[in-house]
Specification:
This protein has about 425 residues and is α/β, with parallel strands linked by helices. Helix content is about 40%, strand content about 15%. The strands form three sheets. The protein has a seven-stranded mixed sheet with strand order 1-9-8-5-4-2-3, sandwiched between helices. Strands 10-12-14-13 form a four-stranded antiparallel sheet. The termini are close together. The chain binds pyridoxal-5'-phosphate.
């Protein structure tokens, strides 16, 4: 009865007693711009879609994309590849991870991360999670000491960045090489340093749901001469690597080119053509994502049952998705809440579900990995809710979404 009264009060300026419904799509990205479409048409009309298929004097779209991406992120080198997952596998191989090795990684991440480790025949060792959803640095140090691992594949999962200064101090002390998974942090930074520039390699994705959209695609960055040479050969450059504009001395290629397998995973010119105009829009997109993120975050901040994930002042993030916690609540209650939101058009995902759904799965659902126990990750994920924030949502849409989530959460607190 009490809830009913609040509901009437809240929506008194709307249609009497009708519960607000949202009709936008949580999976609808913005269209590809006309500039990008024209660039794509130019490639299609040329017929030269393969990145190494150039005519005299021509520099391929893929090569230009690499150059522009390296400039944007501030790295010496960049390589464009077929996907973010491929970039991570290529990075692991390029730094010498072999079958049977152990690779440290976040327990809170998505399936392509342990998948990249398994793809090179290595075993993930999961590191626990702290309350702000980043890697547990104490647990990291323990696991470095208790394992023979020399590599950390660090996932900036859902865009949450840990204290990178502390992390790098720990990893440097123990001579651990860091590969950064920046699928959710392209355009983000820690203390002014772009995400992907702390470790020896940074990996990015341009899959439709990430910060650039070419359907599929990936990029990696590094400053290391030998790593980029290996990565270029690995990605399937045959002996055409000289077409890359920014490459190390050819002596390095001479040394490694016949020792390094070709594991084809190139990007093509069509995707690169679509991506280049998007690169120049990235900072504008980041601004718009964060505007939307802040509207929803503000709308949820005072709901007693909801815990906002706090961000460090050093973190400049990209709010392309939003997470919040409903701590200490049973699974049944959370299912009720999710269904309540869903019935009003707000599609949320829950990391605590016992069976993986859509993109959301949990470390213990990757049954090909040795079973491991991570108490804090379990506790956090059992109440962790996840929401996409596509740029097709207006700020008004975000207000509606926040109101619906709040009102469904209020119902929950009264059950
Ligand atoms: C999407 C994603 C990747 C890999 O990207 P793909 O391009 O889809 O292979 C890697 N890590 C995380 C956390 C992701 O969400």
């Amino acid at each position: 009865m009490f809830y009913f009264a609040i509901s009437v009060f809240r929506f008194s300026n709307q249609e009497a007693l009708m519960e607000e419904i949202f009709d936008g799509s949580f999976t609808q990205q913005e269209p590809i711009s006309e500039i990008a479409i024209s660039a794509a048409l130019k490639v299609l009309r040329s017929g030269r879609l393969h990145r190494y298929n150039v005519i005299e004097g021509e520099v391929s779209e893929t090569t230009l994309l690499e150059e522009e991406f390296a400039r944007l992120i501030g790295s010496k080198y960049s390589l464009a590849v077929a996907s973010g997952g491929y970039a991570m596998g290529c990075a692991l191989r390029a730094i010498g991870v072999k079958a049977g090795d152990f690779v440290l990684s976040n327990a809170f991440t998505l399936a392509p991360v342990p998948g990249a480790i398994a793809g090179v025949g290595a075993q993930p060792i999961f590191v626990d999670t702290v309350d702000n959803l980043t890697i547990d640095l104490e647990d990291l140090e323990l696991k470095i000491k208790s394992s023979s691992s020399k590599v950390l594949l660090l996932s900036h999962m859902r865009g949450h960045i840990c204290d990178m200064d502390k992390l790098m101090a720990i990893c440097n002390l123990h001579e651990i090489k860091v590969i950064e998974d920046c699928a959710h942090t392209m355009g983000a930074s820690w203390a002014g340093i772009p995400s992907g520039r702390h470790g020896v390699i940074g990996c990015y994705s341009s899959q439709t749901y990430k910060h650039l959209n070419s359907g599929e695609g990936g990029l990696l960055v590094t400053d290391d001469d030998e790593i980029i040479a290996r990565a270029i050969i690995l990605s399937g450059s045959y002996m055409l690597y000289q077409q890359h504009r920014s490459i190390p001395d050819s002596a390095i290629f001479e040394e490694i080119k016949l020792q390094t397998p070709n594991i084809s995973g190139r990007m093509d010119n069509l995707r690169a053509a679509i991506l280049r105009p998007q690169l120049s829009d990235l900072s504008d997109r980041v601004f718009r994502w964060n505007e939307r993120y802040k509207v929803i975050e503000e709308g949820l901040r005072n709901v007693p049952i909801i815990k906002i994930i706090e961000r460090s002042e050093n973190e400049s993030y990209v709010g392309s998705s939003l997470q919040f916690e409903i701590p200490k609540t049973s699974g049944n209650q959370i299912e009720l809440f999710l269904n309540g939101c869903m019935n009003r058009g707000v599609e949320l995902k829950w990391f605590g579900a016992s069976v993986p759904k859509a993109f959301t799965s949990k470390y213990d659902s990757w049954a090909y990995v040795e079973p491991q126990e991570l108490a804090n990750t379990d506790r956090i994920l059992s109440g962790l809710i996840d929401m996409r924030l596509p740029l097709t949502f207006s700020l008004k849409d975000c207000q509606i979404i926040a109101r619906i989530i709040s009102s469904e959460a209020m119902k929950l607190s009264r059950v």
